[in-house]
Amino acid sequence: MKNSNPVVMLIALIVALGGLLMGFDASVISGVVKFIEPEFGLTKLELGWSVASLTLTSTLAMMVAGPISDRFGRRTVLRYAAILYAVSAITSALAPTFLALVIARMIGGFGVGASLILAPMYIAELAPPAMRGRLVSFNQLNIVIGISLAFFTNYLILQLGKSDAPWALKLKFNEYNWRWMLGLETIPAVLYYAGLFFVPRSPRWLILKGRFDEAKQVLARLSSINEANRAVNEIRESMETKVEEVSHGVRDLFTKRMRLVLSIGIVVAILQQITGINSVFFYAPMIFEQSGIGTDASFIQAIMVGLTNLVFTILALLFIDRLGRKPLLVFGVGGMALSLFLLAYGFHSSSYTLSSESLEALSGTVPVERLASIADRTFESDLQFNEALSKVLSAEELSTHSSEIIAAAISTNPILILSGILGFVACFAISIGPVMWVLFSELFPNAIRGVAISFVGLINSAVSFVVQWVFPYELQVLGNAGTFALYALFAAIGLIFIIRVVPETKGKSLEELEETLVGS
Fold first, then answer.
1. Quick one: pLDDT at residue 333?
2. Which of 74, 107, 428, 479 has CB 3.0 to 4.6 Å from 88, enough for a Cys bridge?
3. Residue 466 burial by CB count (10 A; 0-12/13-18/19+): exposed, middle or buried?
4. Packing angle between helix 432-443 and helix 510-517, nearest 10 degrees?
5. CA 183 – CA 362 distance, rounded (Å)
6. 256-281, pLDDT tens digit by residue?
7. How much of the chain is helix, strand and coil, in % rounded to 5?
8. Is the entire prediction scored with pTM above 0.90?
9. CATH superfamily ID and name for 6-199+241-348+416-503+510-517
10. In terms of C-beta density within 10 A (0-12 exposed, 13-18 middle, 19 or more buried), how is residue 162 classed?
11. Distance CA 248, CA 257 (A)
């Protein structure tokens, strides 16, 4: 297959739009949590549930997406995922209660799980070895574009809510701000569904089903007849020598010869999420508000997170097939650990004092008369300050006015905190963000790739669910500094594993990697 083919690239870009929907669907909630917490009177764990519920069903989808796609095809399942995205967006925007909102988000989670597994799998099965890392990373690129788009549209809707323009007032952006944030996803979902009619079936899936002539036709469109014949014969031989693996499924993952690749897959899957990347993506405005910059500025800095993620993901695309997978992982995860320690230090060095002058400035928007008892007292941590606030304000008042109160009281270095977060996101985006999915598409044998990627993807998503769900509660119990110090420790441990165990996979065909890492 040609190493540079515009048709292959176009197909990869269309399929990778599932990543854009995944990124948008997951991150758009970051702008929503501030408004639904007081509107529905949520506890911290309920707030975390509103974010993590999508990941719960995406985890369930990952359990079955690979096997279902092995039966019906990658493209077919991705079309149904696009439908689920659209249904979720519409029902989320119209949700009358918290329960209805959670159910709507969970519907979208099934689409997230399917596209997260199948888009990189499809691209890896179509791409030539020399382009595979870059093309599979298109999915991660689209995820970060979706994340950036969600941050931007959230801020745009927030500003439209303040506009006096007649059309903005008519559409009620102020009254229905979070509903507009969620509903916009309908547009890219419909475009993705239409785009999937222009991509072929996976040639490796066709061979798995014994449809060799169709596989040759697909590959011939992407290269030449001779290369198509050679590729079909090579893939067919690889699958036929391991035909028993198809029937064994998950059980075959736990055989002795799979021990190395399965261990790598599990550890990398856990590491990508346990370092807290989705805490940053899905709660970015909340985190920035903790540094005292206010609501508007926190939404602007969330956009900076999205743009940083996008720029460094593009750099990963440029370097992943040049430098290799492992060098990017070592550099990136090491940088993540350092950035998280910096972030923890920034919050640890903060203090909180509500002076008489700051209370006067808050009058009119915050019930300052009840804050008088803690005026001019200095608190050395956010835990102490929040505990004092909880004794004089109701939970609803605290969730509604926390941004203004923290901004008035905090003494910190917001640039240090911003630098820590942006450094963490940059290092993630150039390393384990895109590299993990490339590794997953390369590590496992052809015949059980669907089952294997579903299994490690399930673990990845399960860890993500827990991290997202407990994050608001974690901040409440451990504080900002303690939470990010814990993430930093996990990153440091992961770096040691990468240096000692993870192999380099660049430039080798999937069949060569199978022979090297798994054997016959």
1. 96
2. 107
3. middle
4. 80
5. 34
6. 777 788 888 899 999 999 999 988 88
7. 80, 0, 15
8. no
9. MFS general substrate transporter like domains (1.20.1250.20)
10. exposed
11. 14
Which residues neighbour 409 within 8 Å (Cβ) at sequence distance 6 or greater? 292, 352, 353, 354, 358, 385
Q: Are 285 and 31 in contact (CB under 8 A)?
A: yes
Please provide residue 375's backbone torsions phi and psi, each rounded to the nearest 5 degrees.
-65, 140
β-pairing, 410-411 vs 351-353, is antiparallel
The amino acid present at 225, given as its one-letter code, is: I
The rounded percent of the chain whose pLDDT value lies above 90 is: 24
Q: With beta carbons less than 8 A apart as the criterion, state whether 212 and 236 touch.
A: yes
Distance CA 333, CA 311 (A): 17
Question: Which residue reads 């764990």 in tokens?
Answer: 45
- Which of 146-160, 161-175, 344-358, 504-518 has the weakest average pLDDT? 504-518
> What is residue 375's three-state secondary structure?
strand
How many CA atoms within 13 Å lie on the side-chain side of 407?
16
For the chain, how many helices (H) and strands (E)?
25, 3
Distance between CA atoms of residues 20 and 150, nearest Å: 10
Q: Cα(516)–Cα(292) distance, rounded to whole angstroms?
A: 53
55 close to 461: Cβ distance less than 8 angstroms: yes
Identify residue 245 by its one-letter amino acid code: E
Q: Which two tokens stand for residue 120?
A: 């990189």
Q: Return the number of other C-beta atoms located less than 10 Å from residue 473's C-beta.
A: 15
With contact defined as beta carbons under 8 Å apart, do 438 and 320 qualify? yes
Q: Are 139 and 18 in contact (CB under 8 A)?
A: yes
What is the tens place of the pLDDT at every residue in 321-359? Answer: 788 888 999 999 999 999 999 999 999 998 888 888 888
Burial class (CB in 10 A: 0-12, 13-18, 19+), 515: middle
Query: What are the sequence ranges of the domains in the chain?
Result: 6-199+241-348+416-503+510-517, 351-411
